[in-house]
Amino acid sequence: LLCQILDQWFESEPLKATLATDAVIGAMASPYTPGSGYVLLHHVMGELEGQRGAWGYVAGGMGALSQAIACAAAALGAHIFAEKAVCHVLLGRDGHAQGIALQDGTEVRSKLVLSNASPQITFLELVPQEQLPTDFVQRIQQADTRSPVTKINVAVDRLPNFLAAPNARDGQPLPHHQCSIHLNCEGTHLLHQAFTEASHGHPSSRPMIELCIPSVLDPGLAPRGCHVVSLFTQYTPCVLAGGQPWDEQARNAYANTVFDCIEDYAPGFKASVIGRDILTPPDLERIFGLPGGNIFHGGMSLDQLYFTRPAPFYSSYRSPVPGLYLCGSGAHPGGGVMGAAGRNAARVALEDFGRL
C-alpha cells in the first residue's frame, strides 16, 4: 500500500499526505487503495529539462503546447482540420482502415489512421462493432473510467494571501505562489474521507485541492494586478447519489464548498473572485471527450496498465482493425503530458507503413 511506503520514508503527516495526492490524482481511489502507489510513481518517473520528477507550466497555457505541435506538423506538410468532428473510420472490403469520414461528409483517405481519442470513442463509436472481436468490445465497455475530478478555473483581482505565508508588502508574488499549493492535505485520512464520500455519490465536504497560479509565471494570462487560478479538485462522483443531475445548483454548491475551504487558508480569496468556470466529470466528458471525465482516458490501476492497456493482446498500439492505431492516453503507458504513447504509436505505424 502507498501509505506503508510513505511511512517507511517519511515522518511528517502533512508531507506524506501531500505526496499521496499524486498517487490519487485523477483516480477514484484512496491512498489506502491497493495499487495507488503506482500512480505516484507514474507522476514522478519523468523529468523536465534534466530535473527528475519535475513538472512545469506551458507559457501561454496548455493550448500553446497544442499550437506548437500543430506548427511543427504543418511545417512538415501536415494538413490540420480544426473543429471538424469525425463521424467514423472508413474501412475497405478487406476490413483495413482507409481513412476517416467527417460529419460534414468529407472523406479523408489514408493508408493508416491513428486515433488520439479514447478507446471508448475510437472502438465503440467510430468503428462498426461487427468489425471487432466480441471479447475486445466487452473489455473496452467494461474498462473503469470513473473520475473524481472537478476542474475549476478562477479569475481573481488580487494575489491570494495565505495565512501560512503572508504576501509581501509590495504585493509581488513569492516563491510559494509559483508552485503547486496543496490544501486539505494535512493527513492521508482526510484524503480517504473525501474519497469515501464520493464513492457513496456525494461530493466531498472537504475536497482535496491542488491550487496553481500560472499567471505568476506567465503574466500575459491576466491583466496587470489580476491573476488566473487553476483548481484541480477531488473527489466528485460522475453520477450523484439518487440520480441527481450535475445541474447549475449542484455545480455551484460544490464550487462554494471549495471556495470556503480556500478561504480558511487564504482569507479574502472569495472576495477577490471575479469569474469562475466549473467543469464536473460530465462536463469534462461532454467537452473534451474524456470517458467518465477521466483525464487518463481510463483508470491507471494495475489491471489496466502495461500489456492490458487498452486490452490484453492490444497493447502495442495496433488494434483489431488493420491500419488503425491508438495513440492517446488510453494506450501504454497511460496519461500525462509526455507524448510517450503518441511517439511509440507513430514508430509502430511507420514500421507497418514500410511493409505496405
Automatic annotation (TrEMBL):
Read off the SUPFAM superfamilies from this record.
FAD/NAD(P)-binding domain
Tell me, in one coarse class, where this protein mainly resides: mitochondrion
* GO MF term list: oxidoreductase activity
Q: Which UniProt keywords apply?
A: FAD, Flavoprotein
Q: Which interval of the chain is the signal sequence?
A: none
Output the Gene Ontology cellular-component terms.
mitochondrial matrix
What the entry lists under InterPro entries is as follows: Amino_oxidase, FAD/NAD-bd_sf
What job does this protein perform? Probable oxidoreductase that may play a role as regulator of mitochondrial function.
Its subunit composition reads: Interacts with COX5B; this interaction may contribute to localize PYROXD2 to the inner face of the inner mitochondrial membrane.
Q: What is this protein called?
A: Pyridine nucleotide-disulfide oxidoreductase domain-containing protein 2
Species name: Psilopogon haemacephalus
